[in-house]
Amino acid sequence: MQEDLLSGSPYDDDRPAPVGADAVLAGLDPEQRAVATALHGPVCVLAGAGTGKTRAITHRIAYGVRSGVYQPQQVLAVTFTARAAGEMRGRLRELGAEGVQARTFHSAALRQLQYFWPRAVGGEVPRLLERKVQLVAEAAGRCGLRVQRTELRDLTGEIEWAKVTQIVPDDYAAAVLKAGREAPRDPAEIARVYATYEQTKRDRAVIDFEDVLLLTAAILEDRPEIADRVRAQYRHFTVDEYQDVSPLQQRLLDQWTGPGASLCVVGDASQTIYSFTGATPDYLLNFRTRHPEATVVKLVRDYRSTPQVVHLANGLLAQARGQAAQHRLELVSQREAGPEPVYVEYADEPTEAESTAHRIKDLLALPAERGGCRASEIAVLFRTNGMSEVYEQALADLGISYQLKGAERFFERPEVREAGVLLKGAARAGSDPLTADAPDLASQVRAVLATRGFTATPPGGSGAVRERWESLAALVRLAEEFEAARHKAGESGDLSAYVAELDARAAAQHAPAVEGVTLASLHAAKGLEWDAVFLVGLTEGTMPIIYAKTDEQVEEERRLLYVGVTRARRNLSLSWSLARSPGGRASRKPTRFLDGLRPGSGAPGSRSGARGGRGGVEFGEGRPAARKARGPVKCRVCDRTLTEAVERKLRRCESCPSSMDEALFERLREWRAGQAKKQGAPAYVVFTDATLMAIAEDVPANERELAVISGVGAMKLDKYGAAVLSLCAGEEPEADSEEAPDDTSDESA
């Protein structure tokens, strides 16, 4: 008998091999099966968004356990969030692989640190600092610096980045310069705060979460006998989201695995979006170099998103550059066709928010068979958290419930902590007058929470009052689900059992689902998915963010948009506004990442073959009707007033760079030649070169967009519109009339 270092429970190495292993493989696709049956590492799984990576790796572990190749207590699966670890544990239990440890890096390291500290160092483990912000503020004050609240958050982030990249205070300033990192203030000042923060921790005998990894790795490095103990216990490792590991996490992983362990890593370099925290895809991309004998499996069958969503996602990555782009995975949707992504341009931000809220209300009103969604299956995603307020208000104005993702942890909210105390008191009382007349568990919970203002209907407006109500409503819904699950299992679900469930969820940070539209930043949306996703605020300066200066920073912004797109299962909307406020100057431009992908945007520079989804265009409220320009025409690139006829037709200076789809231009010329031959007329009678160039630059998606182009009059739109739009869509036009055009007056250049 031995003791599990993470669970503290004994296990038996001589237990009989389990049976029914082949049943684990049922239902896996060929690539997932290849992962599941590759039981001896090293194994590298390159898994695109929505390709079932969690399914593949949990079935691999379960197959190893049920075939007797793995002893469950010798398997350690690590990931990055408590939610992901909890999901993995649940799936492993369902697959008959109880006893496998699935934890976050920090959780696994903390348990080992607590276990080995007394014998390696002596005494009790230093107290863990749950939040370092207050101590960082104190350190800044001791350095004589006045720091605003937002600056304090940035300072804390810089210290965390330095620690996970293993940079000591004395080396911080030089490391920032070498990395091309934009520090939130003078690097020398940050280095002083960092050094003072570290000294303050030592003086008070406390450690932070980064110290947990550092100290565990140091103990394993300095005490070979302890490292041998860990390696004897854990022989099979799985690391999820491997593209997000930091140098410090990799250092600890190297100590865990040693030279003889079986290692399986899973990741997607195209979803690397946390480099600002120290994460790097280098370990994933160079895995085959470090392990030449590794088995590499690529998962590209996308089970999450429709072909239309996948087509746009692939188009985004087709334009990417850099090392991660060289390893991109081209997804293949396994779902039935759905609606095209919708691209919407609005006059200003309030109009964008209000219109988005109305479109969400329409989705909620539709039945499921007609494409409708529940509120919890809809998300509004934005680049920065500061963008949420206008959407909170717009949804609240329409009475639509919502939840903020990535805000304060659910079980740490004051109203949730207070509710927990009240529910525990009612459970202990047993015959509490509050719950005496309540016929079921959910009614008892409602009765208890009513003493703190909970009502059956939500309050009007947005803000703190609405958020408090949403938290309490989530506890009521959880009670309903808990009671139903207990009833289905033939068990009773009283208030005491429900309180125990809340405690277990709080310990695992497994928050209940809030039945409302999710509002989240793109970073907070990683790992989640919804039936309908609204990507909002997609303008230059926001996406990519204005402080993305280097090529790699811009590419990470592209990957962030890719993550947002791949959160959608079926409905996807991408929108932007031309001005910040009503009546403001319409100076904004949609993100460059959609060039060549959204209709009417032309082709992306040198990547004409990477054109993506041909989604329908929907113009938002407040946008003026399209019409031909009668006043000054400005260059679309440099904003100079154009005077030459050809330049006005192209809407750019001849010297400014063109976004023309050259392949489309040649197809248009070939089609025009055929038309001219049929009519026995010069080619320019059909369309001039300048008009064809303008079409190939704008790539119109419908008659309205085509009609805006100079040189396309009403008669030509009627005669040639369908054929031109077919060519722009990459299709062959239908056979058309051989009659000569009745009007050539709109071809003046």
List the helices and strands and how they pair.
Layout: E1 2-3, E2 10-11, H1 30-37, E3 43-47, H2 53-66, E4 75-79, H3 82-94, E5 101-104, H4 105-120, E6 127-128, H5 133-142, H6 149-164, H7 172-179, H8 187-204, E7 206-207, H9 209-222, H10 224-233, E8 236-239, H11 247-257, E9 262-267, H12 282-285, H13 287-290, E10 295-299, E11 301-302, H14 307-318, H15 323-326, E12 332-333, E13 342-348, H16 349-365, E14 378-382, H17 388-397, E15 402-404, H18 414-429, H19 441-450, H20 464-488, H21 495-508, E16 517-521, E17 530-535, H22 551-565, E18 568-579, E19 633-634, E20 641-642, H23 645-650, H24 662-679, H25 683-686, H26 689-698, H27 703-708, H28 714-728
Parallel strand pairs: 3-9, 3-10, 4-5, 4-8, 6-7, 8-9, 11-12, 13-18, 14-16, 14-17, 15-16, 17-18
Antiparallel strand pairs: 1-2, 19-20
EC number: 5.6.2.4
Domain HRDC: 658-738
InterPro entries: DExx_box_DNA_helicase_dom_sf (IPR013986), DNA_helicase_UvrD-like_C (IPR014017), DNA_helicase_UvrD/REP (IPR000212), HRDC-like_sf (IPR010997), HRDC_dom (IPR002121), HRDC_dom_sf (IPR044876), P-loop_NTPase (IPR027417), UvrD-like_ATP-bd (IPR014016)
